Every structure is written in structure tokens, then in C-alpha cells.
């Protein structure tokens, strides 16, 4: 239980660091440039992030533990998938909140800042989702290969 809380806090700190980075860059750009992220760009980024999130979640909620006979290994695999699943949910929740804030604050003095913050944070999330999506696929393949090796050894 304590381990889960530590991982939760680490994920929240990571999400907060991404948000602070995005807001810092957005503040600089909003002050020194006339950049305003158009609504269709934010909507497209959020949609892409949502699609990648959902694909990653479908992999993260179905760990490939069939055939893993060692209980300790099976628990470790499931825990790894849970960590990724939880971080996906935190990032996408923040994506959603920032997207909503950016939409609500359109046509205000904060429009440029919130639009840039949203665009940057969603882009960071997309990169994170994509990287972890690929890593989860690789982990699933590695697990399958290890199971096949163990079956071949037992058959010999």
C-alpha cells in the first residue's frame, strides 16, 4: 500500500513538472510574442491525445500474464501495467482540465497563455503516451517470448 502511494506521489510530481514547464514556456511566449493557438489546433491536439490515450489504456488494462507461472513475476508484471495505467489517467485528466480551461478562457486576457499551455501540455502527453504505448507492446512481446522459451525447455 505504501509503495502505491509513493508511485502516486511520483506520478503527480511528474505531471506537475510537465505542467509547470508548459506554463513557463507559455508565459514567455505569451508575453514576448503574439502567438494565439487557434481553437481547431487545440481541438485536434486534444483529440489525437485522446485517441492515443485510449489505445494505450486498452493495452495497459490487459496485461499479458497468461502462461506466467511464477506468481511473483505475474504480480510484478501486473504492477508495472498498473503504474503505466495510472500515469496515463493522471496525464489525460490534466489534459482535459487544461483543455476545458483554455476553451473557457477564450476571448479573455489569458487566451494566449492558456492556449499555449494547453498545446504544450497535450503535446508532452502525446509523446509520453506514445513512448509508453510502444514500451507496453515491447513488454508484451518479451513476455510472450519468455513463455515460449519456458514451454520449449519443458518440452525438451
Question: Helices, strands, pairings?
Answer:
Elements: H1 2-32, H2 39-60, H3 71-104, H4 111-155
SS content category:
mainly alpha
The H/E string reads HHHH
Low-confidence stretches: none
Strand segment tally? 0
Number of helices: 4
Give the rounded overall mean pLDDT: 86
- What is the radius of gyration? 20 Å
The profile of the biggest β sheet is: none
Classify the beta-strand content into a percent band: under 5%
Shape summary: elongated
Residues in helices, as a percent range: over 70%
Termini gap: 41 Å
Notable features of this structure?
156 residues, mainly alpha, 0% strand, elongated
Quick structural overview:
The protein is mainly alpha-helical and 156 residues long. 85% of the residues lie in helices and 0% in strands.
Question: What does this molecule look like?
Answer:
By secondary structure, the chain is mainly alpha-helical. Helix content is 85%, strand content 0%.
